[in-house]
Design brief:
The protein has helices at 11-15, 20-28, 35-50, 56-67, 71-82, 87-90, 93-98, 111-118, 155-163, 176-183, 200-203, 213-219, 243-251, 283-288, 307-313, 327-341, 374-384, 414-420, and strands spanning 5-9, 103-110, 128-131, 133-135, 141-144, 168-173, 189-193, 208-210, 234-238, 255-259, 270-275, 294-297, 316-318, 362-369, 389-396, 400-407, 425-430. By secondary structure, the chain is of the alpha/beta class. It folds into three domains: 5-219, Rossmann fold, CATH 3.40.50.1000; 230-341, NAD(P)-binding Rossmann-like Domain (Rossmann fold), CATH 3.40.50; 362-430, ACT domain (Alpha-Beta Plaits, 2-Layer Sandwich).
């Protein structure tokens, strides 16, 4: 009999970016004269419960009483929530389809709005555990089912004890009720999900902090949409950089460090660098930055660091020789596009290649010295491993060849080792 893993996932501020009852209040109380004061009360009750400072049952009762909601409001909420699914959950729909029997949504929220949202992601209705509203004949929400264990303090613990699942259970969530599962001993590990909100009182108790669902899948060696979580890619921002530039990279999920100089402790691990105009990189530090993949410069990078060294190391440079006012957004977007899709459009030292992301495939980047026969060797390796090529693109300049290959999702991991061993390879990586 195969050992089974179960994944217990919270809904509010985890599967979705928001707290659904807070959103419902903004819909149902839209025309209420005291709406802002009521919104504040509802948000306060939510946060007190999530931080373990108020019993969940008391918090839930107070919030439902304040809602003044009906079934029409619920329809509007569902439409809104479908657009607010957390990005890292959204891009990993394939995981939910493959593991439909092992994924459970366990929430103190309500089935009426949770089921339509998560069902889009192949999550089975019988695996959705949540509260239910009580309505009047004309559709007004007046209460909730108090017999449901999830309406009580410690409800998730009570429910999981009733279910008696056999196997290892892993919990993913942002609140105190999620941590209680770990405290009770019912789950093997608790992962504090911080993509939307990080509650210090919860983060400090977690077995692992997961800034994205990609991180959870990565550390558990589970199938995922991207090969390496972006929260693990160190992006060093140096100098007087506009807030807009930093916000763009943060929003994309990279791990940001904003410093006044290229500190020694970051040299070995930095994956991306964004430099303010006037900043420089010392040659010996550049040569030791072996994980560095791309540099962005807000201005002309001429004489600020060696373009030739970057090219030799497979580091793609984006700069703005004309110091265009738009560079504060343009350069960070170029960095993100390169990291996400392999796009080298407007690079200062690499061949220009601009490609859309392709669904249901893996994108491999092979940077090599521009010598004859490399593509023949790459494709020989693909053939030996019975790889189906979805698309392939090669651009070269005098120094380097830049090859992108999209392959189907089935592959032998020995393939990557073979590609890295090709003579004259500079860098190889998997994008997604």
């Amino acid at each position: 009999m195969n050992h089974k893993n179960y994944y217990i996932i919270d809904f509010d501020s985890t599967f979705t970016q928001v707290e659904a009852l807070d959103e419902l209040a903004r819909i149902s109380l839209n025309k209420h004269p005291d709406k802002e004061a009521i919104f504040k009360k509802i948000e306060d009750y939510t946060n007190l419960a999530m931080e373990g400072k108020l019993s969940f049952s008391e918090s839930l009762a107070k919030r439902v009483q304040l809602l003044e909601a009906n079934e029409d409001h619920l329809k509007q909420l569902i439409t809104r929530l479908k657009k607010k699914v957390s990005a890292s959950f959204s891009r990993n729909a394939a995981f939910f389809k493959k593991h439909a029997d092992e994924v459970l949504i366990v929430s103190g929220g309500f089935k009426e709005f949770i089921t339509p949202v998560v069902s889009q992601y192949h999550i089975k209705k019988e695996n959705i555990y949540a509260n239910t509203f009580v309505t009047t004949g004309d559709g007004n929400i007046i209460d909730y089912d108090h017999a449901n264990p999830l309406s009580e303090e410690g409800g998730k613990v009570k429910l999981m004890r009733q279910l008696e699942l056999k196997g290892d259970l892993y919990g993913i969530g942002d609140g105190y009720s999620d941590y209680q599962l770990r405290e009770s001993g019912l789950i093997k590990k608790f992962y504090a999900f911080t993509e939307n909100i990080a509650r210090e009182s919860i983060v400090s108790k977690a077995d692992h902090i997961t800034p994205s669902f990609d991180e959870f899948l990565y550390v558990n060696n589970l199938p995922r949409a991207i090969s390496y979580p972006k929260n693990r890619i160190l992006c060093l921002v140096i100098g007087d950089i506009p807030k807009e530039s930093i916000a763009l990279l943060k929003r994309d999920g990279f791990s940001i460090r904003h410093k006044t100089s290229f500190e020694e402790k970051y040299v070995a691990d930095v994956g991306m660098i964004l430099l303010a105009d006037g900043e420089k990189i010392e040659q010996e530090k550049l040569e030791r930055a072996v994980k560095l993949k791309t540099i962005g410069y807000l201005g002309s990078a001429k004489n600020k660091f060696s373009f030739q060294t970057c090219t030799n190391m497979g580091i793609v440079v984006f700069d703005d020789p004309k110091s265009n006012p738009r560079s504060a957004s343009f350069i960070p977007k170029r960095l993100a596009d390169f990291m996400n899709k392999g796009t080298t459009y407007m690079s200062g030292n690499f061949p220009n290649l601009q490609l859309p992301a392709i669904d249901k495939s893996h994108r491999l980047i092979h940077i090599h010295k521009n010598v004859p026969g490399i593509m023949a060797q790459i494709n020989t390796i693909f053939a030996k491993h019975d790889i189906n090529i979805v698309g392939q693109f090669l651009m070269t300049n005098a120094s380097v060849g830049y090859a992108i290959t999209d392959i189907n999702t089935e592959y032998d991991k020995q393939l990557f080792k073979s590609l890295k061993k090709i003579e004259n390879t500079i860098k190889f990586r998997v994008l997604y």
